[in-house]
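Dear support,

Our group has been running a series of protein-ligand predictions, and this particular one with pyridoxal-5'-phosphate is the one our PI (initials K.S.) wants archived with full inputs and outputs. We had some confusion internally about which version of the output was final, so please treat the block below as the authoritative record. The input we submitted was:
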Amino acid sequence: MTADQIKDNFDKIRLDIANAEKASGRESGSVTLCAVSKFHPAESVLAAMDSGQFLFGENRVQEAYSKFAEINTLRPGKAQLHIIGSLQLNKVKKSVEIASCIQSVDREDLLKEIEKHAAKLNKMIDIFLEIHTGEESKSGYEGENELMFSLQNLSSGLYPHIRATGLMTMAPFSADEKLVRKSFSSLRELKEKVNSRFPELPIKELSMGMSGDYKIAIEEGSTMVRIGTALFGEREYNKPSDGN
Ligand SMILES: *Cc1c(COP(=O)(O)O)cnc(C)c1O
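Confirmed final output from the archive:
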């Protein structure tokens, strides 16, 4: 996709988001766009930055690491990166180095590992707790007990370098709008519950909505949509240069 096409896509999606905010009585600007640049080259990210986009999401740490090293050399201190993909413990160190937020925290041992590396770097890092709300997705906290245990530990100061600022989910990949909507509304309801039980935690963000379902997500209260394909085009998963 050319730089001009990418800029046009950003204009279109920004307009769509603004219209969806308006249509559902949301305040203008209440939904943040996280541009998902996984599998797309640094040039695509630079085109997005030229159109005024500075928040990006990546799900593969190694790919993000080298891509954003290049971007930060060209445009120091401009891009902000969120890790959005399921994480293995051995990827946490690099994630903490390069990201301002890890959106895909779905178990206690990740919190421990994030704290360990953030403490070493003397860095405060934001996290979102990822919740399993749809049948088809595999990631996310499943049971409420485990989630409450993590929230309790966050609340009691066990992880001083971690700020829990949101919840994240992926809706099922389904043409059934009701299923998708239910997944989003259940995340919103969970956030209300968490906010009333742990008012001391700064959990404000609801990260939900992707290319195929972001309008529904905004209607259901999303504060951050994670959009890739609609901005950068289809991902080419089997380019030889990917090494997989
Ligand atoms: C890839 C990905 C997205 C973006 O998906 P699109 O359908 O391309 O918009 C959003 N969230 C997560 C967690 C992803 O892995």
